[in-house]
Design brief:
By secondary structure, this protein is of the alpha/beta class. The chain is built from 8 helices and 8 strands; from the N terminus they run αβββαβαβαβαβαβαα. About 40% of the residues lie in helices and about 15% in strands.
């Protein structure tokens, strides 16, 4: 594990996730009636739950709006959900003001250009392996897993490990 990433992850109090391409594989599925569906990885979901149980707050910021994401966020216990918000940096500033946190206390996982301003501003800004190459070059780190295929779990476990909570989270199931 990269020591710089672990150092950055030590003080994280809020983890923020993009949806399409991060919590999903980035594909959009539309049914004949115009509704859409997304597929989510259960490993990612459990990683987010472990992070929440360790005391780290969580949020989703997505440029798109869909009831499926609202349901997934509610099922996982994600405390803050922002959909239909293209200016993710403005949302970050609102959230930090509400929670009384600093940029250095925030981790963000994204995959595309709209995520880049936040990735570059926060204490730990990461990209998924399937992210745009320009975004990968400007992130603090890149997951080994692709979006929707365990990248969020990897991100969560990095934070848990840096804060000494990974073994506790895993040991709860022994």
């Amino acid at each position: 594990m990269n020591n710089e990433l672990l150092q950055r992850a030590r003080g994280i109090r809020l983890a923020i996730f993009d949806v399409d391409g991060v919590l999903t594989d980035g594909r959009l599925y539309f049914l004949a009636d115009g509704s859409e569906f997304k597929t989510f990885n259960t490993l990612d979901g459990h990683g987010i739950k472990m992070l929440i149980n360790s005391g780290v707050r969580t949020a989703i910021i997505s440029g798109r709006t869909t009831p499926v994401v609202e349901r997934r966020a509610r099922n996982l216990g994600i405390q803050h959900l922002y959909q239909g918000r293209e200016d993710k940096l403005a949302v970050l500033d609102e959230l930090l003001a509400e929670l009384g946190l600093d940029y250095e206390q925030v981790a963000y996982l994204g995959d595309d250009l709209p995520d880049l301003p936040v990735i570059r501003r926060v204490g730990l800004g990461m990209a998924v392996a399937s992210a745009d190459s320009f975004v990968c070059r400007h992130a603090h780190g890149v997951t080994l897993a692709r979006g929707g295929e365990g990248a969020a779990r990897e991100f969560c476990e990095l934070i848990l490990q840096a804060q000494g909570n990974l073994e506790n989270a895993q040991g709860a199931y022994l």
